[in-house]
Amino acid sequence: MLLSTLVVLAFAVGWKTAFIVHLPIVLIAGALGVWLFYVQHTFENAYWATQKEWNSEEAAVRGGSYYDLPRWLHWFTGNIGYHHIHHLASRIPNYRLREAFQSHPALQQAPRLTLWSSFKSARLKLWDENLQRMVGFPSVHRNARVRMLAVAGSCRGRPDWVGC
Description:
By secondary structure, the protein is mainly α. 55% of the residues lie in helices and 7% in strands. The chain has helices spanning 2-13, 15-41, 56-63, 71-76, 83-88, 97-103, 115-120, 137-155, and strands at residues 66-68, 112-114, 126-128, 133-135. The protein has a two-stranded parallel ribbon. Strands 3-4 form a two-stranded antiparallel sheet. The longest helix is centred in the N-terminal third of the chain and has 27 residues, at 15-41.
């Protein structure tokens, strides 16, 4: 359907004009979609568990965030801010997600992200098993340097550095 719409548009206004108008819209919408998906799943205290310990309900509520957007942005994004509810029950239509969110206190316990805090989570890339949270690359490098210094410090005074 989209392709046929683009073809009709191209014949109506010309290929160049259709491309110049349509391409930025697709790129911006795609980037926003990727952003919304990323921040809903990648935040500091996200839920990660091994296969043995994994619980689907807990993963749904704690593994996806409640993206607390202004009301007009909830409307614009099809209520994607209530993504954790979608993980629990994907058949709930987007226009009922807010109602579902307000209907039960457990659904309101999902990790809450605001527009501002979502920008902070853009730096998070890796799950740190020791800290049990998402971390960014600088944190990983900093922790590796600390571990190297600790190992080097414990090997001082030994003639053989191999095996320290």
